[in-house]
Queue: 4 jobs
Job 1
Amino acid sequence: MLGPLFSVAVGGALGASLRYLTGVAIARVMGQTAFPLGILTVNVAGSFLMGVFIAVAAQRGLSHLSPLLATGFLGGFTTFSAFSLEAVTLYERGAVGLAALYVTLSVCLSIAGLVAGLWVARGMLA
């Protein structure tokens, strides 16, 4: 039990750190915006990477890495708790249109990212 738990913890720490650094980098490049680009970026990119990992793990018998990579790293990198907070914050600030756009883009692009990751990885493995 401690082996997988340790893997989740290490992966989560690395993923969360990378999420933070991605947000900082995007803020430096794009400047501070009312739209939460950092969280949107990590949710879409993380969903794509989840698709790639799941396809590769299934093909290559690497599911034992799921606690480290899927649950830990990608779970820490992407976060819909932060997504939810950003959406509610936009709404509470009166930016209802931006909140709706953010929710729609986050959900649709993250699902599209996962499908694209599966498609790319499966194509590479075929």
Job 2
Amino acid sequence: MKKPDFQKLKRYLPWILGAVMLLSVTLVPMAIHGADFGDFAGDNDYGGGGGGGSWDDDDDDGGGAVIWWLFRVVYELFGVPGVIVLLLIFVGIYIARKKLKGSRSTPVQTQVQRTDRASLSPMHSYYGLDPHFDEAAFREKLSNLYVQFQNAWQAKNMESLRPYMTDAMYGQYDRQLDAYRQRGQTNHIERIAVLSVELAGWRQVSGKDMIVAEIRTRIVDYVTDDRTGQIVRGSSTQEKFMTYEWTLVRTSGQLTGQQSGTTGQTCPYCGAHIDINHTAVCEYCGGVLTTDTFDWVVSGIKGLSQQTR
């Protein structure tokens, strides 16, 4: 093994340690835990198109140049054995990152952007397809749904929300909520205020009508331990001002009914008459119904920004 030049080692050691620490933080990001419905609120504020945290594998902030410099210095000081040791360190960091990524109980949002408004048609043009569509009533529905979503999340029971979400989305968020059940924790969302609901536009995709809405809210968001009642994350006093993008879908060709609130349908499994907006599970045969065939349901949510005050 090449004997180290201690004069050079003394000179380079602070830089080597600093580079290793920097790259460790870069390669193994800090876990940013989310909260509120879907885990969009978090410990750190975000905005300007960013999500509540990211570990995008395509990010490049100059780390490659730092790594190259570090290997050159280690080779100069320790030769090939030093390079091998450094390489093993980075392999260990890489493995740790993968394990951390796979074991997260609540996913961290990746960088997200608003849906391109140029890809949407203005809402007034939707009346040509559905003359009974009421934009004001639709905004009020989304405002009420937001509050219902948060209350159900805090109660750790999303069954009442099934009629208002696609099956895929319901399954995804129920799995996230199950992590709170297993940990014995409750996510409290209090002092909820919906500040504004904007319908950004609509378009048709794969036999579905799709409406994109931007919702701005204020909440107080924190997590407690069910056994002790102690706050384990967040604050019971700080207010978070959130901006979300909701995507809602409905089978193309459907029209807004003259009645509001409910849609009576026949169960395709047993023929029983049910209220699809009261429950998406037939009370007679237990069949789970696909609700987006009959009325608007949420198919996706993005967290666009968070500001804590």
Job 3
Amino acid sequence: MNDYRPRVVDALLKRKLAGKGAVLIKGPKWCGKTTTAEQVAKSVLYMSDTGSRDQNIKLATIDPHLILDGPTPRLIDEWQVAPVLWDAVRFEVDHRKKHGQFILTGSVVMHEEEDSKQIQHTGTGRIARLVMRPMSLWESGDSNGQVSLSDLFKSPERIAGTCDLTLQDIAFITCRGGWPDTISMDHSVALDQAFDYVDAVAETDISEVDHVNRAPEQTRRLLRSYARNQGTQTSLTTLRDDMKANESGTFSEDTVGSYVKALNKIYVIEDMRAWNPNLRSKTAIRTSDNRYFIDPSIATAALGLGPTDLINDLNTFGLIFETLCVRDLRVFADALDGNVYHYRDKDKLECDAIVHLRNGSYGLIEIKLGGDSLIEDGVESLLTLAKKIDTTKMKNPSFLMVLTAVGKYAFRREDGVYVVPIGCLKD
């Protein structure tokens, strides 16, 4: 484990263990949940270990306390293969009356209402939850971290940073994604991994999540449609129509909804909620979620695109780059006790991302590939939205930022808007 690459979630995990009896780390497969948990665990049980899986499941059913016995924190990896362990962990936490007893990891969302026969209690107050995503550019070493999102909330008069990443670099990073195993691979090998991930999702994962047989080709069609509609408030009906228009075959809205729900449960997609600020005048705010993958490489693989394809189609590149930035902002926001939202109103005024902290502070962010014209468009949108916010009822924004793919420098403009290349940003 000496070659472990530190993650933003490391500090969060330790903090949660200090305040709760158990911590559940959830997120997509291959994102590094187990490796991260192993850094603090004093003992480990791999529920899906080859040759022991069936025995582990039987033991969990007969006497789960034997499985939970061991030095703490005790890591139970892929705990969801034996859902009865959830109540067993909750029981042990109640009776031991100590913090930091267990770490649970899994790649499937737990829905208590669907597992009521095996899970009797939610674990509220006893089991903390952490979402772990693929690596941000700061974690993968692609960002130099010269600009801190945390520091921007202090509204500095001056920031400074330089970035050497080219558009070609960003195109490769977007297609590679933030999967930990890819960081040290040769470029061609690294690019294969997202395609393998999509294959696994379509062929097995989407059906295994709830034991409902789903067609691999329909899954691929939906993933392609999702990729074409990233960053939009596209409805299930529109996704269905897009699938029918671009592929052969018929799809019902209920079928699309079932597939989308399954993809959510295995963390392939992670949509973004709308932000609802206090405004100076009445404006109808669009409240639908924006569609996003949890990692941009899923989109490029679903569409069969590589770095050169993105360079040759900047419109598509811009949409998928937005997914990369949203991933990173979500990683950083978690560390700051915040969430990431989007904004769109009836006048079509939009803001790509709003990082809103628990203390009420927030920052407005527009995402652009780069170039003076696109940056100016982003600045105009940010300033327009900032003027509409009723600051007698909520705080002024802590910062306005245009987050770019390329750009030599990170700096604060005379109008107060920050321009920051993604290759400079950290939590």
Job 4
Amino acid sequence: MTDFDRDLDELIRREITRRKLLRGAGAGALSLSAAAFLAACGGGGGIEKTGANKQSDVIPKGQIAKTLNFSNWPLYIDVKGNRHPTLDEFQKKYGTKVKYTEEINDNTEFFGKVRQQYAAGNSGGRDLHVVTDWMAAKMIELGYVQKLDKSAMPNVVQNMTDVLRNSPIDRSRDYTVPWQSGQTGLICRKDKVGTPQSINDIFDPKLKGKVTMLTEMRDTVGLVMLGMGKDPQSFQGLDDAMAAIEKIDKAAKDGQIRRFTGNDYLKDLPKGDSWLVFGWSGDAVQLESDNNNIKFLQPQEGFMLWTDNMQIPVGAPHAYTAEVFMNYVYDPEVQAKITAYVNYVPPVKGVQEIIRRTDPKLAESPLVFPDAETQKRARIFRPLTPDEENQLNTAFQKVIGA
């Protein structure tokens, strides 16, 4: 285990101990009130566990299907021309054609899209989706995802990095398999703004109308809190977080913030519509490959750290095949190809050594393989109680006009 892994593991463990939001080790989910959770999501009533997702059941083994429907975020798998080599190789190996849909632009937006289907035990045809830790926890608590059969995924069991094995949102990894991890910081147009060092540069009046923030509450509020000298990892009560939302609200009303985005800032930066944005590390590396004026910056105050996870929704028509796919991408050679393209932190052991043979510079990148020094500035937004989440989401959604 690297120094980074040890530091991050300790960081997560401190979060678990302090907030005490976990069930026993076998439950693998945040211990949240069902009614409050639904209220926070805009629903009502109690949780209805579907027959497809009894907590004690695992996905049964079966035949490998001819098709697999995979919902993911933009620019989140290797691309060559108009093809996805990893998916093509999976089809060649197993005879399964992957229908790959880049339909996830924002966790909350995606949840709103699928919630009624998932609640009814209908996946909408999806076999796999990828969502961030806190949303994955909601999916688990609401009974919207299926329990995994680890015996069908030996690569996952053997090759997952140590730091990701015991997650605060899914202690035993019964319902989640990490896809990638990454950082949230600043992405800039160097030809327009130089290389800003502080989160607070996004509030510079000289940049009025040329900045964007993320619709992901934890990323945007977390960064603004850091800029205010507050720690999103350990704040008590909601005063500090609400103060950050008030600061964001004022900037939005003053016209400082051009708009709030998901991955769609990917269009704003190259066109020059935005000069400085809150964004995700892997996106920046890919944008920079096409425009060397675009650069990701780790602000001096710190940056946010997160993990996205694969899950199999209830009613998935090809659930066993989805497990086969999870196992496939946990082959280090396969994962190395994904990492070389997306430039996020891989969840699989041995990838750095493989990449070092073909791209030594990438193998030493602190954005892809963070070292202990980088980790010192990393922050994970602390777990929220249902009431806290409801209050923060309501206030933030009002600010961004959602």
